[in-house]
Amino acid sequence: MTYIDFRYEGIEAGVRADASGLPFPVLMPRQTHSCRVGVIRSAGDAGDFPDTDALVSFLPGVRIGVRTADCVPLLLYAPDIRAVAAVHAGWKGSLGGIVTGTVDVLKSCGASPARIQAAFGPSVCGRCYEVSPEMVSDFRQAGFSNCVIGERNLDLESVNRRRLVMCGVDPANIRHSLVCTRQTPSLPSWRRDPGTPSRLVTWIRIRGGEEY
Asked: Any idea what DSSP says for residue 176?
């Protein structure tokens, strides 16, 4: 099954259902549901990223990625500045605006938001993501009432799609995920299997240079 459709000249991207079985290295941050964005401009930057949940890379050959098990993985490509990004957006990052922060980093480096290409990887769908009334209230107050399903369910991908559009990303450049992790037994899901150590890895790289 194709879990993500993100094919452009000059970049590569993919999804691996088993993080322990990666056949190649992927640089990933130490995710803590923060809104911190790390930036890689040279080989010297490709080190450790504590308390970080998104990476932006300008370095060809380096695969960057994020681990998820129901949270939302998002890949971005800014062709005008030849940069890519990988974002982990759980409910905290979605509410706090990690996607907005990542696009802001790209914009500060000269990217036009209208040219940014975006693709979501598999995550828990809104029908399967039941949350507390308090969390529903928080998202409603933040302006995401349209992303609440019924009384207790939340569509995190929809929240982050709206954030992208609010940043100026063209809706036509946003690729949705049609795969729910909880409903797909081959994919890791914390909601389906509480405590699972398995993680999905969603990665991207700029072609060229020495392969990391």
From this structure: P
Residue 203 to residue 6: CA distance in whole angstroms: 11
Strands 200-206 and 11-16 turn out to be antiparallel
Q: In the prediction, which pLDDT does 118 show?
A: 97
Maximum CA extent, the chain: 50
Q: Which two tokens stand for residue 178?
A: 């049609």
| Cα–Cα distance for residue pair 114/117, rounded to 1 Å | 8
**In one letter, which amino acid is 150?**
G
**pLDDT at residue 208 in the model:** 84
46 C-beta neighbours (distance < 10 Å), count: 18
Confidence bin at 43 (pLDDT 50/70/90): confident
Closest CA to 74 of 57, 56, 91, 86: 86
Q: Are 105 and 37 a contacting pair, CB within 8 Å? A: yes
Q: Which amino acid is located at 64 in the chain? A: I
Taking the C-alpha atoms of residue 102 and residue 48, their distance in angstroms, rounded to an integer, is: 18
Contact (Cβ atoms closer than 8 angstroms) between residue 174 and residue 161: yes
- How many Cβ atoms from other residues are within 10 Å of residue 141's Cβ? 10
Q: Which amino acid is at 206?
A: I
Distance CA 92, CA 26 (A): 24
**pLDDT tens for each residue of 177-186:** 989 999 999 9
